Amino acid sequence: QVQLVESGGGLVQAGGSLRLSCAASGGTFSRYRMGWFRQAPGKEREFVSIISWAGGNTYYADSVKGRFTISRDNAKKMVYLQMNSLRPEDTAVYYCAADRLASGSYRMTSAYDYWGQGTQVTVSS
To answer: Is residue 54 within 8 Å of 42, Cβ to Cβ?
Structure first.
């Protein structure tokens, strides 16, 4: 079993920045594709970003392109999401997820094997 713990969420004003962190333990972190998802109240959990196991390939939801940056440090077993130019619509619980087998679409929650508990991000107008 892999454990994922997110941190770094908080309350910021529109236009501000936050850096989320995801600490992983167990498993073979360096071989997992790692993703970030978010879920606002009353909405489905949605894809935000993913990074390949070596860190050389990243993908972003259209809604965050140009504003968010995903990165990873395999030696530290950490994944990060740098969020800039935050908007009120970015308000959600952000989840870190690990894709061990890459058996499905990376944009779908069902593709991921492990999830963190989430960290709240609130962006005020």
So the answer is: no
Residue whose C-alpha is closest to residue 77's, from 15, 20, 24? 24
Taking the C-alpha atoms of residue 78 and residue 75, their distance in angstroms, rounded to an integer, is 8
Name which of 46, 58, 51 is nearest 91 in CA terms: 46
Q: What is the pLDDT of residues 17-64, one digit of tens each?
A: 999 999 999 887 778 999 999 999 999 999 999 999 888 899 999 999
| pLDDT per position as a tens digit, 61-89 | 999 999 999 999 999 999 999 999 999 99
| CA-based torsion, 28, 50, 118, 44: positive or negative | negative
- Quick check: helix, strand or coil at residue 13? strand
Q: Is the pLDDT of residue 102 over 80?
A: no
Sheet holding 18-25, edge to edge: 3-7, 18-25, 78-83, 68-73
Beta strands in 40-91 (DSSP E): 46-51, 58-60, 68-73, 78-83
